[in-house]
Amino acid sequence: MKCVIIDDEPLAVDLLKEFVSKVDSLELVNTFTNAIDAISIINQSNVDLIFLDIEMPHFSGIDFINAIEKKPLIIFTTAYSNYAVEGFNLGAVDYLVKPIPFHRFLKSVLRAQQIFNPQILPANNNPISTPEIEQDFMFVRAEYENVKLNFSDILFIEGLKDYVKIYTTDNKFTLTLISLIKLENLLSSKGFARIHRSYIINIKHVKSIQKNKVIIAEKRIPISESYKNSFFEKINL
């Protein structure tokens, strides 16, 4: 597959170039640190796969997808896990969160190969075995840096209009611009539960349940009627 790398971080481009060089089925056509510069090249050439960053200045990866006429396969490569749902809604093959390990990169390429040419990799006879490692962390944007948060360290999350506060076991919180619904979609399979329109909790940190409240680290968090049944079902109550 002929591929292109689009990422405004030169170090990220270099790492992806190294990864691509290790996969015989990939041919690197070009790299770009500006998505705008890549539009004409993509529209005029036969590119099969794009490794695409989302958060780029002036012109995002989402803007790029909407601007190109040809639609190659897309693998998102980004530090922002909160875009995962939107990425898949755009038909992305996969969504890789930085820092990207090679085995995870390879798994995405194999998935793209199956879509590009299903005869190469039979569904039940994958010639390359890659370890299945469950991602146990996420990166969120806080002020001027991307903060890594381990799922196991998160106590609960409080919604504040467009922002959320993510409280952790070190008695601190991280304020980030993201919606609760996106976090709910991301964390629902990681042992978290939405119990209120303003709260998502980590079930492993629940000390007790008192009437319509959950106790986590001495914090009393309300359980709303609209989420009560699904929450109790999830914890087998």
Task: Describe the 3D structure.
The protein has 237 residues and is of the alpha/beta class. The chain has helices at residues 10-21, 35-44, 61-67, 84-89, 102-116, 180-187, 225-234; strands at 2-6, 27-32, 49-52, 73-78, 94-97, 137-142, 145-150, 154-160, 163-168, 173-177, 192-196, 199-202, 208-210, 213-216, 219-222. The strands form four sheets. A five-stranded parallel β-sheet has the order 2-1-3-4-5, sandwiched between helices. It has a five-stranded antiparallel β-sheet with strand order 10-9-8-12-11. A hairpin with a 4-residue loop joins strand 9 (163-168) and strand 10. The radius of gyration is 20 Å and the shape is elongated. The model is unreliable at 120-133 (pLDDT under 50).
